[in-house]
Amino acid sequence: MSTITAKDFKEIVLGRRSVKNYDPAVKISREEMTEILAEATTAPSSINMQPWRFVVIDTPEGKAKLAELAMYNTNQVNTSAAVIAVFGDMKCIENADEIYGKSVELGYMPEDVKEKLVASFKPMYENLPEQNMRDIVLIDASLVSMQLMLVARAHGYDTNPIGGYDKQQIAEAFGLEKERYVPIMLISIGKAATEGRPSYRLPVEAVTTWK
Predict the structure, then answer these.
(1) Tell me: the pLDDT tens digits for 69-106?
(2) For 9-42, how does the pLDDT look when each residue is reduced to its tens digit (9 = 90+)?
(3) How far apart are CA 21 and CA 191, in angstroms?
(4) Which InterPro entries does its entry note (predicted)?
(5) Has this prediction a pTM greater than 0.85?
(6) Taking the C-alpha atoms of 195, 197, 202 and 203 in order, what is their torsion angle to the nearest 10 degrees?
(7) Contact indicator for 141, 88 with CB cutoff of 8 Å
(8) Three-state secondary structure call for residue 58
(9) Which of 12, 60, 162, 189 reaches 20 to 30 Å from 153, CA-CA?
(10) What is the dihedral of CA 3, 84, 91, 180, to 10 degrees?
(11) Residue 50: which of 34, 32, 37, 36 has the closest Cα?
């Protein structure tokens, strides 16, 4: 992918549209999809626990299964190059030692700082009430989802965030532990067959207060 200028980035953000109808002939290689996901996962997260988990649904079999769970969004499912199911890992703290250990190895922080931080927040995360943990992973996985949509646009693709699907069954349907992995959203990705429509946004004055 070529270098993105500040002007390009502004166009990426302001030109994003939710696309409902894709060119079914357009496919995305798993190598490029991996690149897109890697760039998306530079998004911020609480204490860098990166609780997002992705299921990339790009096979006919996977799409057929998903279509049954997203009955009001089957056009996006059927015509897109792929649908990315984003989940939040309720036990993301299990990766703390790997994440912070690698940070030490790469020279991002000294060992003593790593030990102090992990000893401080690991017990806290392990004992958080379920609703508090759900709130954390929902926010963090939503951040990566928005970044994923912008990264996809920088790669020349269109997207659509989807909330209308069976959240009670989707984890188990794709082999994930239901109690551990919280469904966040689906994101269809591909090349638009018809352009997404612009939509009205409330003026900043209507949604902002200054103190």
Answers:
(1) 999 999 999 999 999 999 999 999 999 999 999 999 99
(2) 888 888 888 899 999 999 999 999 999 999 999 9
(3) 9
(4) Nitroreductase (IPR029479), Nitroreductase-like (IPR000415)
(5) yes
(6) 50
(7) yes
(8) coil
(9) 60
(10) 170
(11) 37
Around Cβ 94, how many Cβ atoms within 10 Å?
13
Kind and range of the H or E run holding 89: strand 82-89
Label residue 187 exposed, middle or buried (CB < 10 Å: 0-12, 13-18, 19+).
Answer: buried
SS3 assignment, position 88: strand
Under CATH, domain 9-91+134-194 is a member of which superfamily? NADH Oxidase (3.40.109.10)
Per DSSP, what are the bridge partners of residue 187?
84, 161
User: In the beta sheet, which residues pair with residue 188?
Assistant: 83, 160
Is there a contact between 88 and 52 (Cβ–Cβ < 8 Å)?
A: yes
Contact (CB, 8 A) for 206 and 182: no
Estimate to the nearest angstrom the gap between the alpha carbon of 196 and the chain centroid.
Answer: 20
pLDDT in tens, 167-193: 999 999 999 999 999 999 999 999 999
Domain ranges of the chain: 9-91+134-194
Longest dimension (CA), the chain: 55
Instruction: In whole angstroms, give the CA distance from residue 192 to residue 24.
Output: 9
